[in-house]
Each structure stands twice: as structure tokens, then as C-alpha cells.
Amino acid sequence: xxxxxxxxxxASYSAFQGYAxxxxxxxxxxxxxxxxxxxxxxxxxxVRANAQQPKxxxxxxxxxxxxxxxxxxxxxxxxxx
Length: 81
What we know:
The chain has helices spanning 2-7, 15-52, 57-80. The model has no long low-confidence stretch (mean pLDDT 87). It has 81 residues and is an all-alpha fold. The protein is rod-shaped and about 60 Å long. The protein contains three helices and no strands.
């Protein structure tokens, strides 16, 4: 929001820029929501599986890292727009 606020000039703010900023915000928000959901689901299942078989810990951590990458990709796309 701070980056977008710095780009806004009241006299030359077009509808295209408005929709671009809206889409950037939606991209970041929805990708973070999806990453949070994925981390929550994988974390829950991973902790339960880790309690039964401790060898699954490394695989669980790798899957959590890949789920977090979803949020980072959305942030990068939002910054590019």
C-alpha cells in the first residue's frame, strides 16, 4: 500500500492505473491467503504424521517451504504491477 500510494498523482491517475493497483492488491492478498491455507493444512497433517513416524519431518518442512513460496510469488507479481 505504501508503494502504490507513492505512485498516485491525483491529476494524472487514470482508470487503468486504478485497476492495475486493484489487481496488484488482490494478487498479493489472495496468494497470501492461499499460502496460509496450504501451510495450515500441510502443517496440521504433517504434525499428526510426524507424531506417528518421525522420518517424515524433513519432507513436511520441504512441503511447508514450497507452500510459503506461493505467497512470495504473489508478492513479486504485485510489486511488478
